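Researcher: Structure for this, please.
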Amino acid sequence: MGSLATTPPFQVLDDTRPDDKSLPAFMVSTTRGFLPRMDPVVSLPAEFDALESILQRMPVKTASGEPGLLALGKLGDEVDGSFPDLTAAMDRYEDDLPVMNALYRDYSFLASAYLLEPCHERFVRGEGYGLGRQRLPRNISQPIARCAEICGFKPFMEYAGSYALFNYRLVDPAAGLEYSNLRLIRAFEHGLDPESSEAGFVLVHIDMVKNSGPLVAGTMQCLEVASRASSGLGSVEERTALNQGLRRILDAMTSINGVMETMWGKSRPTEYTSFRTFIFGITSQSMFPDGVVYEGLNDDQPLSFRGESGANDSMVPLMDNLLQVPMPSTPLTEILKDFRQYRPSNHKAFLQHVRDRSMEVELRAFTLGLKQDGQEGSGDEEKRELLRQSRGLWLQILNQVRDFRWRHWCFAREYILKRTAHPTATGGSPIVTWLPNQLEAVLADMADINDVARRDDARGLGRTCDDVMEAAMRQRETLRKEVDKYCAERGVARG
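Model: Predicted structure, token format:
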């Protein structure tokens, strides 16, 4: 194992070099994980004062507490009137990638607000969303395309690069990333108030991702051990090191899920749909049946992009790739693959690297003891006990992935399905069937691994894993009943 590995090494940072402006704002590190390698740029250069001004005046409730342009229905008029095209000013900052990322964030807020302002107005009146604006004017389309190209994003709002992970500031820099020290830079509705549901929705995501450094470190440790394992079970030292890496991953995922659970209290289910309007995308949305024309781009033929979605976060996809979770061959899985395009370029490359490397060094087979060579000597019993630990840790990590996806489903049920009939999520996936597609895959994989362990050892994987499996199988039945119920109510095929 490992000696034939050909995948080139991926540069995971230990030192994030926060003052280096030549590096992309988003790189993968063992310290900050998938967060930007420095705290986001808050203030734009003076050449972009007009952009700063319109964004400060844009939210439904501004920082001063007064109604903003979106509350008054005046954003579109201002964009179509006096707002300048600042594309040329970007050339002065193309080598300052954190500033370019801030410009991408800010233009994506303006683009989404402009396109979806009419839908928000109808929502407030209790009507359906209707149509958004079908053209993005040149004074937004040109600059967002330019900064997106430089930063490696699509020219539309994304989860990491704009809405969430590059959209916080610290009240006190010395206090760091403590939740109470976080504030939003940009918002659509009431998010400049840190107690609002919009702020809570975004800030909880940041609070989760700050735990991703150990997730990355544990991933790299496991891949490194598997790459040099000398036999089917590996040496005692190798398997001990592997289990240490698995425990780092398990602890990190447990922390991430613990923070995720705080969403219920920090972003109220009854208030989510009021700011959700502004984070819809173009793809598969009734508001944009023919896409959106970006003036001056693509020969003025419509373009289509998926909207902001927490599904674009990189933590659970990292686990899918590392653990080689088998996904069903369905149209819903194809949507999952499409989502991979809506991440920072460095994150995309890292996830692909982990997927390729995990398969190359046969991490799954090594960890689960699926390729034992039968030639271990006197240390067999110790190694087999360590193998049992490996299997237990692997199953518990999968259980944390299950827990994450189950909670995501519960959010979709309580925040969306019970409050709106709109059939698609913000990213354009079917709201009833898409999340269960991935959750069912994880549950099936857990059952398979548990069966393998029981065939090899009558003791199974111990009380903790027995309890995990009992709860998971009960949950699978609950999930199927819930999905069947919502499919029947909404006339949706089970998929």
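Researcher: Any notable elements?
Model: Residues 374-378 have pLDDT under 50 and may be disordered. The CA atoms of residues 178 and 207 lie 8 Å apart.
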